[in-house]
């Protein structure tokens, strides 16, 4: 299923921003896990030499897998994320393996926000957050938008802006 109406991609700056997030996450894992590995190897006197090498190789393979994921996954996420805003509401399509389409009707929108963390601010990005009436998907977020676009979407989705009262 595709997004109805004129669908739009996220901002291309989403890819380098998410790569930086992935690199920082990999770095946060790599240092402490290396310390744990070295402590385990130092404390385990009965582990043969080949076992020590195997643990080191497994750790290195895990770190390389994290580095690969940090570099390649953001482009895949970007390629599979779309959104559309029309008279009915906001439709968000995302997911690389497990795909989902979320439709937020204008009549269900309670309020909207634009959030921006330090890394998003560095890249000029923002996250549109839509709060709806209901229990499932009561908070729907759309990261990876240019900050100005997120603000414009927020203003357009603001309750009472369109004549959609029930």
How does this model look, in words?
This protein is of the alpha+beta class. It has helices spanning 14-43, 49-79, 118-123, 147-157; strands spanning 8-9, 82-85, 89-94, 100-105, 109-115, 125-132, 139-146. The protein has two domains: 14-78; 83-157, no CATH class. Strands 1-2-3-4 form a four-stranded antiparallel beta sheet. A three-stranded antiparallel beta sheet has the order 5-6-7. Helix 1 packs antiparallel against helix 2. The relative contact order is 0.16. The mean pLDDT is 89.
Largest sheet: 4 strands, antiparallel
How much helix is in the residues? 40-55%
Structural class: alpha+beta
**Series of H and E elements:** EHHEEEEHEEH
Count of the separate structural domains: 2
Number of helices: 4
Question: What fraction of residues sit in β-strands?
Answer: 15-25%
Architecture blueprint of SSEs:
Layout: E1 8-9, H1 14-43, H2 49-79, E2 82-85, E3 89-94, E4 100-105, E5 109-115, H3 118-123, E6 125-132, E7 139-146, H4 147-157
Antiparallel strand pairs: 1-2, 2-3, 3-4, 5-6, 6-7
Helix pairs in contact: 1-2
Report a brief summary of the structure:
The protein has 4 helices and 7 strands, in the order βααββββαββα.
What keywords describe this structure?
four-stranded antiparallel β-sheet; 4 helices; 47% helix; 166 residues; single chain; 2 domains; alpha+beta; elongated; 7 strands
């Amino acid at each position: 299923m595709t997004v109805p109406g004129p669908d739009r991609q996220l901002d291309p700056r989403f890819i380098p921003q998410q790569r930086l997030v992935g690199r920082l996450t990999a770095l946060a894992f790599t240092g402490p896990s290396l310390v744990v590995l070295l402590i385990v190897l130092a404390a385990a006197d009965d582990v043969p030499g080949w076992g020590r090498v195997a643990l080191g190789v497994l750790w290195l393979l895990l770190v390389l897998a994290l580095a690969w994921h940090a570099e390649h996954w953001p482009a895949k996420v970007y390629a599979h994320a779309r959104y559309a805003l029309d008279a009915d509401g906001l439709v968000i399509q995302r997911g690389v393996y497990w795909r989902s389409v979320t439709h937020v009707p204008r009549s269900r929108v309670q309020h909207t926000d634009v959030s921006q963390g330090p890394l998003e601010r560095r890249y000029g990005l923002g996250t549109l957050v839509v709060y709806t009436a209901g229990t499932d998907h009561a908070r729907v977020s759309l990261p990876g938008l240019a900050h100005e676009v997120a603000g414009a979407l927020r203003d357009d989705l603001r309750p009472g802006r369109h004549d959609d009262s029930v």
